[in-house]
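Ticket #412: bound-state structure for flavin-adenine dinucleotide.
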Amino acid sequence: MSESIQADAVDAPKTVVVIGGGQAAGWVVKTLRQEGYAGRLVMIADETHLPYERPPLSKAVLAGEADIETVRITKPDEFAALDIEAWQPDCATAIDRATRTVTTRSGREVKYDRLVIATGGAARKLPANIAKSAHVTYLRTLDEAMALGERLRRSQRVLVVGGGWIGLEVAATARKLGVAATVIEGAPRLCARSLPNEVSQFLLDLHSANGVDIRLNAQLVSLDDHGDGVRATFADGSTLDADFAVAGIGLAPHTAIAEAAGLDVQDGIVVDEFGQTSDSDIFACGDVANHPNAWLKRRVRLESWANAQNQAIAAAKAVLGVKTPYAEIPWFWSDQYDVNLQILGEIPAGATPALRGSLEDKRATLFFVEDGHLRGVIAINSARDLKLARKWMNQGRAVDIAALVDTGKALA
Ligand SMILES: Cc1cc2nc3c(=O)[nH]c(=O)nc-3n(C[C@H](O)[C@H](O)[C@H](O)COP(=O)(O)OP(=O)(O)OC[C@H]3O[C@@H](n4cnc5c(N)ncnc54)[C@H](O)[C@@H]3O)c2cc1C
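RESOLUTION: The complex was predicted; output attached.
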């Protein structure tokens, strides 16, 4: 047990309750035990599986190459050794801050000394006046990924609604399985919120080369049952048929119980750099939390694997009085076909990056430099460059653009 926990021992929690059973919740309970917390630990989770990682869901799990055994955060016997009361499947429905009580759908109640909310979010749904077909699916959970994978394998054509990360990964996996795929995107380019023009174009070319029919500026009017499948109708009157549709149109954070409990919620549950909410006994982390990001110098709600793990670790330590600020540079990756794409830091809108390598060769690093320092990096099949960039960014090291773009010399 660390010294700072012992210093806080008078105030040490006797019961910690964690709401949620995803990656962030998994890291909270693991970290609490690793840090020496020996009290009662209750995890309320509405999925039946033990905490698992979601990135493989749109990749290996969808392709039928991975299952629960490969995506779990802790093996069942290791989880059992953590001595956690896992209330699952059950759903926390209310938090009473005055009595420090959490109530669940099944009618159970538990009193907490500290509470961690790691409820993530749900796949955003298409409006009911558009999605009128029974053949519209979403992808957020392992069970959905398994079912979607099976369905893909017996389908000829899938319609993907949304040209963001999940939609594009589903399309790439569909092609891998030999299924024809059409992606419809309302915006004029792919992943427009997180990528500059040239990388959106790169992804468009990549998917087109792999046989995906990508339709930008698509104004979807409705999805209706048609025969055994679905028919999409667009504003210009054109239609498109598929066996089924998968919509990847973003995430709706699960903030309802926090809001109802009177916690500060603004695009996620508002927390400080330690994961503490507007109630000092309640913490939040992962996709549901909105934190002040030191690198971006603004508040942000991140939806990434790295954030779900590392913010959870910082929050779990803070629960025990060990205050280590979560101050990591935002990092996200995606795998599509033979391309691994990683984004680190901030990609300033409209900025011209220094380009190392070549997008045509599918091996390139785009460095976004401000005042002689890196603000952000996009690495395409160049994980080593990204690793180095992360080191330099953490060190605050100045960079020389001529050296960054010179592929004749290794970066060091
Ligand atoms: C298909 C897919 C692919 C992804 N790929 C990548 C990638 O390549 N790279 C990357 O960096 N990130 C990726 N991500 C994002 C990453 O997986 C998420 O950021 C991460 O899973 C967030 O973890 P979390 O624990 O905060 O939330 P979640 O994973 O959403 O977990 C929250 C859990 O809490 C449960 N819950 C919610 N409310 C309650 C309640 N009231 N009571 C009980 N339980 C409740 C939910 O059912 C859920 O099980 C991907 C996500 C998805 C869905």
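RESOLUTION NOTES: Residues 1-10 have pLDDT under 50 and may be disordered.
TICKET STATUS: resolved
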